[in-house]
Amino acid sequence: MSRKIYALLSLVLIASFALAACGAPAAPANTAAPAAPAATMAPAVTATTAPTVAPTATAIPTFAPPKAGQKILKVWSFTNEIKTMAIAYEGVHPDVDVQYTMIPMTSGDYQTKIKASLNTADAPDVIALEASFVKQYVESDFLADLGSLLPDAKAAKTYQFVIDVGTNQGVTKAFSYQATPGALFYRRSLAKAYFGTDDPVKIQALLSDMDKYTAAAEVIKQKSGGSTFMVASNGDFQNLFFANRAQPWVVNGALVIDPMVQKYIDTAKTFRDKGYEAQAAQWGEGWFAGMNDTLKDASGKPEKIFSYFLPTWGLPYVLAPNAKAKDGSSDTTGDWAVITGPLPYQWGGTWVGVMKGSQQMDLAKDFVRFVALDQTNLKNWATGVYTNDYLKKIDPSVPADQKQAAGDFVSSQVVVDGITAGFDNSDLSKFLGGQNSYGGFAAAAPSVNARLMTGSDDQIQRDLADPVSQYLLGKITIDDLWKTFKATVQNDFPDLTVK
């Protein structure tokens, strides 16, 4: 990326992400994407979930003086998730007082506060970075070099894509305790009806690339008489194409439209024109209704959705909470299975970095090591050790809802390999008809590639969303789509070469 574009991105760091979603992709065609769950302490996302808007900016809290001899470590995040690990860290290091500040991302407040704190006494030592804006910070000069922690990452076998996201030009500045590979969830009963089997191995073979996925969509349409759709929204699969490009959006200061972007648009057009998608906008009421068989067309005729593309957090916070209709009329719990799907991809996650000006540099780095690379901590995190009772033994003032349930998919392959079998009989595995949910993501994680992620991705992909929507609606031609897209990108990135 050119120095001019780098400088521009640094200057607009706050404005660019005032509306950034917590791990959600750029809004796909005909979709208004709200924030997706950024972390496992987030509430379930349901059809009635509405974003909350803070009436005023979040104030930085004041803290009681530390105990004699204690070091102060200031940690900022946008959820209370990492607070659980902060308490666990204090349990191991009683000489440390972690002053934890949670600032919601509403209206860009979190990023604004970070920017405003630079070079002041209020600046945090450690910050959490959500997937939608982590590369902005990693590509900036705000974060310290964490290369000294790479041996710990090697020992833990941290998934390479997790490291790649936190690395810029060979310098690693952030690590994540999570890995968020995407997968494909499908209905077992519908698979049996249309393909004669619900076996994940056989269904994976049928849907192992996008051409096969598209061919299967035609089978479902024909056998169901058009009442069952392969997918709810074309936005469900856009991440797959963006994640599997050969080139990033920007190369040597110029916009690059990789062939996979064109293939996404062509595939979306096919699904729209041939009726393979239900046109139930992602995150909309109909999208959720498809998860529990209450989706209906304009005339009231029932419609079914065969599959959803979702990452690790999508199972406990999106799919499972919406499997049962609110009126109790239907429940698809136990009728789902998970496979890696046609293409590997990643969606969401939280990284942790150290501010370059930290006065507690060694301590801050050790905190990042504990959070993201310490195998005991990651195992405790993933298996539900950090109950509220556990945390209260360390700090009796911990609120009653501070805890971490089992099931978050962690970034260490060593830990994942060691605990996967323990999820054979978990509630989420029962939701998947007895399939080990952790094992499904363990199979997908090694194939994810995030090396093309850059700080400009989110805005460029948002610039593409509306022209694609207009094209699929038949309101503009494909040539008009590209003209509009390029003009919008040029406006957002004046120093970028756009041809």
Walkthrough of the structure:
This protein has two domains: 37-180 and 348-423, Periplasmic binding protein-like II (D-Maltodextrin-Binding Protein, domain 2, 3-Layer(aba) Sandwich); 186-345 and 456-492, Periplasmic binding protein-like II (D-Maltodextrin-Binding Protein, domain 2). The chain has helices spanning 3-11, 13-16, 81-92, 109-117, 134-138, 150-156, 160-165, 188-195, 200-206, 210-224, 238-243, 259-273, 285-289, 314-319, 361-372, 375-383, 388-394, 413-419, 427-431, 437-444, 457-472, 478-492, and strands at 71-77, 96-102, 126-130, 167-168, 171-172, 174-176, 182-187, 228-231, 250-251, 254-255, 304-311, 336-339, 350-354. Helix 21 packs antiparallel against helix 22. Strand 9 and strand 10 form a beta hairpin. The model is unreliable at 1-28, 30-43 and 48-56 (pLDDT under 50). The protein is α/β, with parallel strands linked by helices and 499 residues long.
Provide a quick synopsis of the model.
The chain is of the alpha/beta class and 499 residues long. It has helices spanning 3-11, 13-16, 81-92, 109-117, 134-138, 150-156, 160-165, 188-195, 200-206, 210-224, 238-243, 259-273, 285-289, 314-319, 361-372, 375-383, 388-394, 413-419, 427-431, 437-444, 457-472, 478-492, and strands at 71-77, 96-102, 126-130, 167-168, 171-172, 174-176, 182-187, 228-231, 250-251, 254-255, 304-311, 336-339, 350-354.
Question: What are the salient characteristics of this protein?
Answer:
single chain, 5-stranded mixed β-sheet, alpha/beta, 4-stranded mixed β-sheet, 499 residues, D-Maltodextrin-Binding Protein, domain 2, disordered N terminus, 2 domains
